[in-house]
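In keeping with the milestone schedule agreed at the kick-off meeting, the structural modelling team has produced records for the first pair of proteins. Each record is given below as a sequence line and a structure-token line. The laboratory manager (R.T.) confirmed that both were archived under the project's standard naming scheme.
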Amino acid sequence: MTNTQPARVDCDRGFATAISMAEAAADRNPAWWNEIRMSADDVLDASYCSSKLLGALLQSAAHRLGVPAADVWAHIRRTGELPL
């Protein structure tokens, strides 16, 4: 039986800031990204949450690819490519 529940990243503090910053970065809008960062009360919490989100996404990618997560980390360090 497969789990159809979405993964939950446990980082309540900073989550909204991390998601907003990710949206601004994906939109290639550094001015918006910096505005969010500068006005946030929880930048360190957002940084930690961003790291947890990225880690969860990369572990999920490894699972989908059927390879150990360490192989995905090594690939990213070597090539700079994200296997998403």
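The second protein of the pair:
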Amino acid sequence: MNLNNYCQSNQIAAPTYSHSHSGTLDSGTWTSTVTVNGSSYTGDEKATKKLADDSAAEKALKALQG
């Protein structure tokens, strides 16, 4: 189950993401932070924004599911 589905199923407001980038555009890394249910979760550095979002969402989902 992904984070958005979890939030919908549990009547939690949709998660919001923020991003940071370091390095050059072609070889840098992205870090994403997702805020859901009043808590923020930061994922691991990744090569793309999508992968960084996925990493943050995975951490948030694990925390929310206990």
